[in-house]
Design a protein that fits this description.
This protein is an alpha+beta fold. The chain is built from four helices and five strands, in the order H-H-E-E-E-H-E-E-H. Strand 1 and strand 2 form a beta hairpin. Helix 1 runs antiparallel to helix 4 and helix 2 runs antiparallel to helix 4.
């Protein structure tokens, strides 16, 4: 790449390339890889835990003694360029209402009665879907649950449904996207580093 460049041209390109591949330029790469790999690792660990529930936790019938939907607001902030002055940024806040379920079950294990509070295991922004779940688990209705044989007060509901695994799939997908971006950025960085080495060699000639 350096052949055909004058010494002055090579030095000019060298200065530009050095800014592009400065140590600060690696920070986004590390962030994407760190976030992506952390999410993938967390999803993998949680998946293993859920498989343990399906394979080793016994199932029993339980009566619903409490069923209530709750909500809370989640606010996220992001930076975006000002529409008038592109050299400035402004903070944009977005608020989302998330819905969950507060449930309590009464059941018997080895002759002992338990009254255990639990939740749906996830929260969503769709109030209608969460309301359907709460209605399905109406007070007085009976449903299968799974319990930890070493601690029967630790229970899971809907362990055989897709929603039991849905949060893991979402986190895993986001982790793969973040990791993929990090890998692409790293390859681009490595390519620019190799080009810079060629330019440096040309500049010395």
């Amino acid at each position: 790449m350096g052949r055909g460049l004058t010494r002055e041209q090579a030095e000019a390109v060298l200065r530009v390339q050095e800014r592009v591949i400065s140590p600060l330029a690696r920070i986004p790469i590390y962030l994407f890889l760190l976030v992506g790999l952390t999410m993938l690792g967390g999803a993998g660990w949680a998946l293993a835990q859920r498989l343990v529930v399906l394979k080793t936790w016994p199932e029993t019938q339980a009566e619903v003694t409490r069923s209530k939907m709750f909500s809370h607001v989640v606010t996220t902030n992001r930076q975006e360029k000002d529409s008038i002055d592109s050299s400035r940024t402004r903070t944009v806040s977005t608020s989302t209402t998330m819905y969950g379920a507060q449930l309590e079950f009464r059941y018997t294990v080895n002759g002992r009665e338990y009254n255990t509070p639990t939740g749906a295991g996830y929260e969503i922004s769709d109030a209608g879907r969460m309301s359907e779940l709460v209605s399905r688990y109406a007070v007085g209705s009976r449903h299968p649950i799974r319990y930890d044989p070493s601690d029967p007060s630790d229970i899971r509901i809907e362990a055989d449904t897709a929603m039991f695994f849905a949060p893991l799939l979402i986190v895993g997908a986001l982790g793969m996207i973040s990791t993929g971006i990090g890998v692409r950025l790293w390859r681009s960085y490595a390519r620019r580093t190799a080009e810079l080495a060629k330019i440096r060699a040309a500049a010395r000639q």
